[in-house]
Amino acid sequence: MSTPEITVLYFAAASTATGLTVERVPLPPDGLPLPALTDVLVSRHPQTALAKVLAGSQWSVDAEMVDEPEGVVLKGGEEVAVICPVSGG
Amino acid sequence: MSVGGEWPAASVEARLDTEDGICVLTYHKLDTQAIIASVTDDKAGATAVFIGTTRDSFKGRTVTRLDYQAYSKVAIKTMADIIRQARQQTSRSEHHVEGYVSSIIKCAVHHRLGTVPVGESSIVIAVSSPHRKESFVACEYILEEVKRKAQIWKREFYEGEREGDAEWKENVTTSKSA
């Protein structure tokens, strides 16, 4: 009966844009293709820089970098992270 | 653990020991001597070390500090992949040895998280090998790959500017960032 949910992690510029480092996001009952998550997150954070940040970022799902988001459907329970361009070193 | 309190919950300390060496993410000051000691070996004739340090300026602006954060459980795996690659790349050299034997003996890569003041180090890499060339090459390879791939981010703070204006750096688009 419970709505499927994912946990979204924000780092760096994504965190600055949303003011959050973690957020629970409900999914449609049938799940959500990963590319569609962009619009879902932007609609939760309108008038922020998040749309621009997401356009330049990659996804990780359950601690694995995603090379082809088109092939991934979120079912609920996943930990999804916005991976902004990195700047270690 | 002395953290500023504003770091993401997923940006935690981490350590991964593999047959290729040691990868560490820590909020503590990096102990260069201990890191060098961790790759010592009687078969090593060479140890190459890279120390990356917070610099006091960027394009004419005075830098006061850098803040680092990581998606630690992913970044530590990326770092381990990088040191494995570094050792595999040097596995075929002029020294022919049967089977898979790398010319690199051991690698250590330690990256600091949290606030790194000017003059303190954010990354220390140490690589040991029988001869100097392999360790120099592997050390540079590890640094460049960590900068390019590891899920670590830094924010640069400037003197006289609001903290909210501090810039998140991007290694790929900003070629002179570190």
Automatic annotation (TrEMBL), chain A:
<dbReference type="GO" id="GO:0030366">
    <property type="term" value="F:molybdopterin synthase activity"/>
</dbReference>
<dbReference type="Pfam" id="PF02597">
    <property type="entry name" value="ThiS"/>
</dbReference>
<protein>
    <recommendedName>
        <fullName>Molybdopterin synthase sulfur carrier subunit</fullName>
    </recommendedName>
</protein>
<comment type="subunit">
    <text>Heterotetramer; composed of 2 small (MOCS2A) and 2 large (MOCS2B) subunits.</text>
</comment>
<dbReference type="GO" id="GO:1990140">
    <property type="term" value="C:molybdopterin synthase complex"/>
</dbReference>
<dbReference type="InterPro" id="IPR003749">
    <property type="entry name" value="ThiS/MoaD-like"/>
</dbReference>
<feature type="modified residue" description="Glycyl adenylate; alternate">
    <location>
        <position position="89"/>
    </location>
</feature>
<keyword id="KW-0963">Cytoplasm</keyword>
<keyword id="KW-0501">Molybdenum cofactor biosynthesis</keyword>
<dbReference type="GO" id="GO:0000166">
    <property type="term" value="F:nucleotide binding"/>
</dbReference>
<comment type="pathway">
    <text>Cofactor biosynthesis; molybdopterin biosynthesis.</text>
</comment>
<dbReference type="InterPro" id="IPR028887">
    <property type="entry name" value="MOCS2A_euk"/>
</dbReference>
<keyword id="KW-0597">Phosphoprotein</keyword>
<dbReference type="GO" id="GO:0006777">
    <property type="term" value="P:Mo-molybdopterin cofactor biosynthetic process"/>
</dbReference>
<keyword id="KW-0547">Nucleotide-binding</keyword>
<feature type="modified residue" description="1-thioglycine; alternate">
    <location>
        <position position="89"/>
    </location>
</feature>
<dbReference type="InterPro" id="IPR012675">
    <property type="entry name" value="Beta-grasp_dom_sf"/>
</dbReference>
<dbReference type="InterPro" id="IPR016155">
    <property type="entry name" value="Mopterin_synth/thiamin_S_b"/>
</dbReference>
<dbReference type="InterPro" id="IPR044672">
    <property type="entry name" value="MOCS2A"/>
</dbReference>
<comment type="similarity">
    <text>Belongs to the MoaD family. MOCS2A subfamily.</text>
</comment>
<comment type="function">
    <text>Acts as a sulfur carrier required for molybdopterin biosynthesis. Component of the molybdopterin synthase complex that catalyzes the conversion of precursor Z into molybdopterin by mediating the incorporation of 2 sulfur atoms into precursor Z to generate a dithiolene group. In the complex, serves as sulfur donor by being thiocarboxylated (-COSH) at its C-terminus by UBA4. After interaction with MOCS2B, the sulfur is then transferred to precursor Z to form molybdopterin.</text>
</comment>
<dbReference type="GO" id="GO:1990133">
    <property type="term" value="C:molybdopterin adenylyltransferase complex"/>
</dbReference>
UniProtKB/TrEMBL annotation, chain B:
<dbReference type="InterPro" id="IPR003448">
    <property type="entry name" value="Mopterin_biosynth_MoaE"/>
</dbReference>
<dbReference type="Pfam" id="PF02391">
    <property type="entry name" value="MoaE"/>
</dbReference>
<comment type="subunit">
    <text>Heterotetramer; composed of 2 small (MOCS2A) and 2 large (MOCS2B) subunits.</text>
</comment>
<comment type="similarity">
    <text>Belongs to the MoaE family. MOCS2B subfamily.</text>
</comment>
<feature type="binding site">
    <location>
        <begin position="131"/>
        <end position="132"/>
    </location>
    <ligand>
        <name>substrate</name>
    </ligand>
</feature>
<dbReference type="GO" id="GO:0030366">
    <property type="term" value="F:molybdopterin synthase activity"/>
</dbReference>
<protein>
    <recommendedName>
        <fullName>Molybdopterin synthase catalytic subunit</fullName>
        <ecNumber>2.8.1.12</ecNumber>
    </recommendedName>
</protein>
<feature type="binding site">
    <location>
        <position position="147"/>
    </location>
    <ligand>
        <name>substrate</name>
    </ligand>
</feature>
<dbReference type="InterPro" id="IPR036563">
    <property type="entry name" value="MoaE_sf"/>
</dbReference>
<keyword id="KW-0808">Transferase</keyword>
<comment type="pathway">
    <text>Cofactor biosynthesis; molybdopterin biosynthesis.</text>
</comment>
<dbReference type="GO" id="GO:0006777">
    <property type="term" value="P:Mo-molybdopterin cofactor biosynthetic process"/>
</dbReference>
<keyword id="KW-0501">Molybdenum cofactor biosynthesis</keyword>
<comment type="function">
    <text>Catalytic subunit of the molybdopterin synthase complex, a complex that catalyzes the conversion of precursor Z into molybdopterin. Acts by mediating the incorporation of 2 sulfur atoms from thiocarboxylated MOCS2A into precursor Z to generate a dithiolene group.</text>
</comment>
<dbReference type="InterPro" id="IPR028888">
    <property type="entry name" value="MOCS2B_euk"/>
</dbReference>
<feature type="binding site">
    <location>
        <begin position="154"/>
        <end position="156"/>
    </location>
    <ligand>
        <name>substrate</name>
    </ligand>
</feature>
<keyword id="KW-0963">Cytoplasm</keyword>
<dbReference type="GO" id="GO:1990140">
    <property type="term" value="C:molybdopterin synthase complex"/>
</dbReference>
